[in-house]
Amino acid sequence: MVLGAWLMSPASVPWSLLAYGVLGLVLLWQAGRLLHSLWWRPRRLELALRAQGLRGTRYRFLTGDLGEHGRLNREAWARPLPLRCHDIAPRVAPFLHNAVREHGSACFTWFGPTPKVTITDPDLAKGVLSNKFGHFEKPKFPTLTKLFSDSLANHEGEKWVKHRRILNPAFHLEKLKVPTQTIFTSSIR
Q1: How far is 113 from 180, CA to CA, in rounded Å?
Q2: Which of 43, 92, 176, 189 is 20 to 30 A removed from 54 (C-alpha atoms)?
Q3: DSSP states of 89-139
Q4: What does the pLDDT look like over 36-76, one tens digit per residue?
Q5: Structural domain spans, the chain
């Protein structure tokens, strides 16, 4: 009876209780967003990648494959590279080398909650990189962009197409012959 009367009159509700209720709702909402970005979204992406025929490592909560990546790097760097060995992939990128060997030329791994797709087939890579639909996005590094300025390598979309069109004639074979000959003759002397 007392509870019903208390709920009916908003003036009698203590402000601290109202503040705690709002704080609880905000915390619950943020926890849901965090759970979505760290568990549900990566699991959905993993299922979508597997449905497209890609094989890869299973998602591990929060860290992905970072622990195994670090362990394989430490193991590879602990022993010296044999003399006259030109197979440097296991030494330089041991985790990617193992992933490609185990899962095939098109596979995915996890960098935290973000999947990284690795494509080693040149024809497939050319098809992905020449795609004009904009599904392939360059990774963004805002601190490096500020350090190295806003260059062609950082542009995307229409801005990239415009600057590429400006620079493309500079790399035609006829225009590159003269500097190449000059460099060649100066290196002989």
Answers
A1: 46
A2: 92
A3: HHHH-HHHHHHHHHH-SEEEEEETTEEEEEE--HHHHHHHHT--SS---PP
A4: 999 999 999 999 999 999 999 999 988 888 889 889 999 98
A5: 13-133, 137-189
